[in-house]
Amino acid sequence: MIRTTFLSTGMRVPDRVVTNDDLASIMDTTDEWIRQRSGIEERRWVEEGEAGSDLGCAASEMALDRAGLEAADVDCIIVATLSPDHFFPGTGVFMQRKLGVSDVPCLDVRNQCSGFLYGLSVADAWIRVGQYRRVLLVGTEVHSTGLHRNDAGRDTAVLFGDGAGAVLLEGREVDESDETAAGLLSVHIHADGRHAEKLWVEVPGSKYDPLITHEHIDAGLTRPMMEGREVFKHATSRMPEAVREALDANGLTIDDIDLLIPHQANLRISQMVQRALGLTDDRVYNNIQRYGNTTAASIPIALHESLDEGRLSPGGLLCLTAFGSGFTWGSALIRW
Ligand code: ACO
Fold first, then answer.
1. CATH node for 2-173
2. To the nearest whole number, what is the mean pLDDT of the chain?
């Protein structure tokens, strides 16, 4: 059987560091409030003109370099983002052009914080049926330009950051009975649209004619709106649930997990997920302190850094889980 394996990872965050104190100088907030509620100490913001496709391209080049491959060796590109460079076309084609390749399919995934897992699910299906052998999967976000960096937007402006992470996936033939064979064991994705407006950006939207007006802007409809407590409640129950689902599907238990990488939504959410699963600190990876919430990019960035820090050894069991706007959520299990 063909199994999806991880060849390499890459990441790129903008050079510009924005601390909590920097935010406190432009809106009514404090370092203490942000740290206490979210664990975030600083985040990165792009400089003017730096796009999500630039970050995604740089992360991809690092992953390609680490695998000893070139962009031309990739059969397909999947880009997960909620902050595309433009309304259309998707960020994938801009990234493909910057990577210097053409005639490679580019799929854009719009599943917010769960985007990386949704993209992984599609990549895995394509790889296992033999449609594509090598897939470049990227999560890239530029939040800073969409945040309302003022008192009215402070509830969300302090949480999100910019960045990109990439993984190179390749299908490999494995013996079905070999329980130690490296690769993706399964991905599990979910959605519940009843909660769509609990975390969303309403405008611009083609539902309106024209899709954006001065009145929309004046009413603040272009800023991310979040019912924070509802998000917190659902995130802390759905992620443990999805982890258990993945373990059950593979006949494994929580004791088998060597490393859990939760989507970096909020350190308090990650800590509650950790507690619900009974995992010790050495078995959970968090880096939201330095980057804030980078939505679709948070898992591949955390994966890249955790590997560089030697947190996962060959043969170890890696678990990924995410929850976000939609609501959407999911999990994946990978034998490293
Ligand atoms: N600085 C200072 N005060 C603030 C800020 C800020 N940046 N933002 C809001 N406040 C104020 C509010 O105005 C409110 O003031 P009031 O009591 O005078 O009305 C007070 O702080 C408390 O606001 P709440 O919204 O009730 O704060 P809460 O304790 O619920 O914490 C938070 C808010 C941190 C957003 C919390 O609800 C949470 O962690 N939710 C999870 C959401 C999350 O982390 N989302 C990440 C993105 S989604 C994802 O990736 C899954």
1. 3.40.47.10
2. 97
